[in-house]
Amino acid sequence: MTRSETVITKMEHVEESLKDTLYRVEVIEKKLKTKLLTTENRERLENELEEVKEVLRRNEKKLQSLRKENSKSFIVAACLVFVCFLFYGLYLMIFENI
């Protein structure tokens, strides 16, 4: 697929990834709460939990940057709309009096 993704689409993908990662963190934490784990399994789960939390932190940072980019795009669009209305108003003021 060569079509570039929009900011909104990227945000949706990152949010979906965040949901999956949060679910994975919950599952691992529930497994760690059981007392029937061997030390080897417990260490493996703790390491996996740290890795998953790191992925979670990266995705949260990526989502923040995408939201900033989206708000910048909105500000540019709002400014363009304002300028268009301004020019239209000036046009009406100047040429309606003739």
Helix content: over 70%
Question: Span from first to last CA?
Answer: 55 Å
Strand content: under 5%
Structural class: mainly alpha
What is the total number of structural domains?
1
Secondary structure elements and pairings:
Elements: H1 7-33, H2 39-95
Pfam family, one: CCDC-167
Main location: membrane
GO cellular component, one term: membrane
Short summary:
By secondary structure, this protein is an all-alpha fold. It has two helices and no strands.
Q: Can you describe this structure?
A:
This protein is mainly alpha-helical and 98 residues long. The chain has one domain. It is built from two helices and no strands. Helix 1 runs antiparallel to helix 2. The mean pLDDT is 89. Its main location: membrane. Keywords: Coiled coil, Membrane, Transmembrane, Transmembrane helix. It comes from Lasius platythorax. It is found in: Membrane. Pfam families: CCDC-167 (PF15188).
Descriptive terms for the model:
98 residues, mainly alpha, 0% strand, membrane, coiled coil, CC167
